Here is the input.
Amino acid sequence: QSTGSSGINAEYGAQACKLDEHSEEIVVNFGNVARKGVSALTKSVFDNLKETADSALGEGKHDTVVSIPLTSSTEYKNIIKKCAISAGFNVVDLIPETIAAMVSADNTAVPDDGHTVVVRVGGSSMSVTLAKVLSGMYSLVDHMEEGIGGNLFDKSIGKFLCDDFNRKNRCKVEENPRSFSKVLRASKGAKHNLSTMNTSECNIESLFDGMDLISNLSRPRFETLIQNDLNKMKDAIQKFISKHSDIAINRVVLAGGTCKVPKVQSVIGQLFPNSPITNSSPDEVIAMGSASHAGMIGKYPSLSTKAESESDGTVSIPLCPTDIEVRVGDTVTPAIPKNTPLPCLKEIELPEGNVIVIEAGGKCIAKAEVPGSDDKSKVSLHLEILEDCSIEAIIKDSFTNERTSVHVPAPKGA
Here is the structure.
């Protein structure tokens, strides 16, 4: 915003810029000219998105999921939803950006239980989120945000280009706001090019007093220029993960356009040496997660009515009250851990044995006898716990195709 303000002041000639807050809108005053800010600008963005959606899907009121920052206030959410509806979208849900990134990463299969870190680095900010994954449910453990983003890379490249131009032409191009804004635009283009290529040309016609800027930037030079910015990013992430050194990180998901820079991916990878990095299309992963979430709501419309928020913004979800285990002889197989979100479905391969016992908290709640098995038999247990904590189980022998059904009613007071 500070860079934009300097450019505005130069164009309007040192006119004072005043911001007046009026409920959900901000009025920007340049002299005697007043323009409505946040809501009008957001509405304009959604209008353009609606045109894109109509050209691809045909005109209509499309079901839409909008991604928002994790720390968004209720007022901010209301403004975003209002502007999207005003543009012609049917907003079925708002989803935090970091959750959308995980939904995209888990689009093809139920994720493994454990902890996931989402590192999002955008144009002007970055965030790191630690979430616990349990039976497909994401729960927030910790979150932090910093004013570190790709714009720092733009400024570092811009400084290099300005210094090179000044040295060759004996001038100070950065003192001219219009010329400096051209340098920053060229720097941003070079950053994007160097995310996928080894070199990038930076050519600006008539940059200063009719003189042109002609420069060639290599990826090694680029990585050297942004080293201080990378160190800031590294320190912020390191400070965050040091608070949770006792938690094993199962994976890291990258999101945001700045994460396309190979050196950024390398730095983050060094901070999580024992965790796989999911870095497929980080600039698109949030949008893809939002689209996947919208598709899921469209397929199962009852989901949106079940997950009703309480007055404090939380959502009540039934949980398994105790550990569920399966005993065959002396072998005990963990089935469903305590606090698993319900309903829950598990398929378990069982060892050889005629008596199968289902235990809750170490106590027998169901017992079934099955025909004797031989070397060709493969016995499995289909175990489902419903929202009322009742249990439906089917014991299957894949060789004989015999099935034994077990029903455990919901406990009293569940």
Summary: The chain has eleven helices and 20 strands. The CA atoms of residues 113 and 135 lie 6 Å apart. Confidence is low (pLDDT under 50) at residues 1-26. The longest strand covers residues 137-146.
